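Entry type: protein chain
Record version: 2
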Amino acid sequence: MISIEGLERQSGTYRLEIDHARIHSGLNLIVGSNGAGKTTLIELLTTLQPPDAGEILYSGRKAQQHLPLIRSQIGYVPADIELYGDMKVGKLLTYMAELKGIYNPDTIERLISDFRLEPVRQLKVKNLSQGVQRRIAIVQALLAAPSFLFLDEPLNGMDAEERKFLITYLTRYAIGRMVIVAAHELNEWEEAADTVIWIHRGRLRYIGSPKSWKQNVAASVWEGEVDLESFEQIPQELLIHFQMTERFMKVRMMGKKQPGLEFTEKEPTLEDTFFLHMNALARRG
């Protein structure tokens, strides 16, 4: 478990403040708008940045007093990680393992197999696709089997098959460990997330189960097909998604009441729920 108490971090005009939070094992999904503080929070939790005030405890240990031990238990892949492009994949992973004090070749071989990197192990990293490079970055973070794994936008550059594989892998890895993922495409994590951590303008707005987050909304989600004239009457701020069909507009929208007979109520997705909460904040000013 990670415990946060009185956490503060100032960067220019931006300020992150979290009074109190407990993050448990499982797959934790950090959500928020661009600039909300997702990356700053991850950099604090990975000890990459020191807090200006407050403290973070990892399984009861204070970061300031047990920094080497805590860092040895952390794996981290930032959104913009750069690998050694001129190194071959196999050599790079061996080198990274040695830096982490890991000299068991079976660990490297297992991860190369799990992440389907065998066909590219003799190729230079710079000659590989962004998705494959992303897999390599995640493998290097997993070499020490970290108890705390942090991934900032891990699906960037991956194709549909890679994305599905990674989410499944992380879901299994999170059993008995802590995985924290910052993402903006939320629906892909719908079945995987155990906990949602919602950051808005540098403040913790919610931490808890996706189910409770969905239930704690002030409006419902509706879906239906309408003609173009009716579509143009729908307020822009209520639209979640729309798509043109042969004759109609297929609309997904929010509202406290049924917008019309053409609409049926739908179970909100994670992205719907985020939209609903953000809309409620905007209305409150």
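Comment: The CA atoms of residues 42 and 240 lie 28 Å apart.
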